[in-house]
Write a structure and sequence with these properties.
15-stranded mixed sheet; 5% helix; globular; mainly beta; 15 strands; 204 residues
Length: 204
Amino acid sequence: MPRGRYSLHDPHDHTPLADEHFQCAPGPSGWRYVSRLTGPAGDQRGSVDLALDDLGRPIRLELHAGGWQVRGAAIDGVTWVRTDPTGTHATEGNVRAHAFTGTSPAFLVATARLLRLTPSSAATRVRLVAFTDPVLAPRTVDQSWALVNSEAHATDNGPLMVDEYQVTALDTGEQHAVHIAGDVVLAAPGIELEDLQSPPSRFD
């Protein structure tokens, strides 16, 4: 069960945003990721709880940030309920999309798991609902993912397969690289893996 810490920062000016303390593991029904976020001063910033089925679809999502809460799942596309900090107002949303995304590295692993690309695969378009900080506002985004390289790296625990994806935002054409090993993000814009206490899990 990998556990560790990511540091999150603004990908443009590198302003520190939060530390994400996480643990994740594959299970009989898919994969689960849980984390808590702390600010630069150690204050609590929120949490992530994401569960996928064995096909990579989100069967449960719960996000907390700034007093806001989102609960969602893959139902008729993706469906969610967003609740305000007072708990008195809840709004429901539904979009014909494939999955969710956001600032957590969990969503990069989840998208890669959903698409299951190979180096010979053509770039694949995916529609996602992004929940943006700090109030978890939903926004539909279209991306293109391509697996451009898959390479084994020698480690003390045997070879570690690292996949490099090229992700393109289809509304702006902006491209960036994402490096993933198993169920751990090694590097991506705004994300640094600072600590990992056990090797990444391997998906079958």
